[in-house]
């Protein structure tokens, strides 16, 4: 492989992890809630693609988006709204409970045996020119990342609901005092998180068509690590951290010999640990403005 191949692979996986990090950071911004159940939204979207495999592809994709968005809103209304004023440790445990409960649902409904989604397999085709191997899903990942990152930025900076979300992320209590509608802002944050989960579910099922009950777990854990790595208290730094983790993981996966690929996650977490020892508030956080919370 050459440096250009490393760059392409790193950009594609970085964009994918950045989308997961955005979903986590949006919810954290308005609720100060680290939603470990974001991965279950991704899994739900992937299973919906399998259940609707006999429908036209467009209809299957639309249903995937609806499933992720509706489940995200229900998750917020049923599990997180009653705990809004609870201690951070309580809400943290609640997100674990929701994640494990949904994972148990997938186990009961679909069994531990994976379900294969092949309807989008055409995107997994590749074109080779010299030593460069470029898959269509790689282009889709980079393009989706750019479009959704730009779209999220426009929503947050150019719309009324986006400005309210930014105000709530800065000081939720003060925002409510000046007229920000808390329920609307929080629900919209979960809707956006559902959209991001649906896009990730689509892209992941192309890369890995075998959907299992833990399908979205690994990518969510690494994206969360990336959000903390960049600075989870701000959307831009959390997104940059998610992208950085994806980029590092892809490049290490290309560089490491096959006999050492089993240590890929170990090397990734080692880099994160060293960075956080130097910058506990996040690698991309502005000095003096980041926050470090203990739960």
General description of the model:
- This protein has 295 residues and is mainly alpha-helical.
- The protein is built from eleven helices and four strands; from the N terminus they run ααααβββααααβααα.
- The protein has helices at 3-31, 38-51, 57-80, 88-110, 136-158, 160-170, 172-177, 182-207, 217-230, 235-255, 264-278, and strands at residues 115-116, 126-129, 132-135, 210-211.
- The strands form two sheets. It has a two-stranded antiparallel sheet with strand order 1-4. Strands 2-3 form a two-stranded antiparallel sheet.
- α2 (38-51) packs antiparallel against α3 and α5 (136-158) crosses α6.
- The longest helix has 29 residues, at 3-31.
- It is globular, with a radius of gyration of 19 Å.
- It starts with a helix and ends in a 17-residue tail after the last helix.
Could you tell me the radius of gyration in angstroms? 19 Å
Overall mean pLDDT stands at 84
Determine the N-to-C terminus distance.
Answer: 44 Å
Report the uncertain regions: none
Secondary structure class reads mainly alpha
Strand order of the largest sheet: 1-4
Fraction of helical residues: 55-70%
E-strand count? 4
Shape estimate: globular
Instruction: Enumerate how many helices there are, as a single number.
Output: 11
- Biggest sheet, in brief? 2 strands, antiparallel
Essential attributes:
two-stranded antiparallel ribbon; 4 strands; mainly alpha; globular
A few lines on this structure:
The chain has 295 residues and is mainly alpha-helical. The chain is 70% helix and 4% strand.
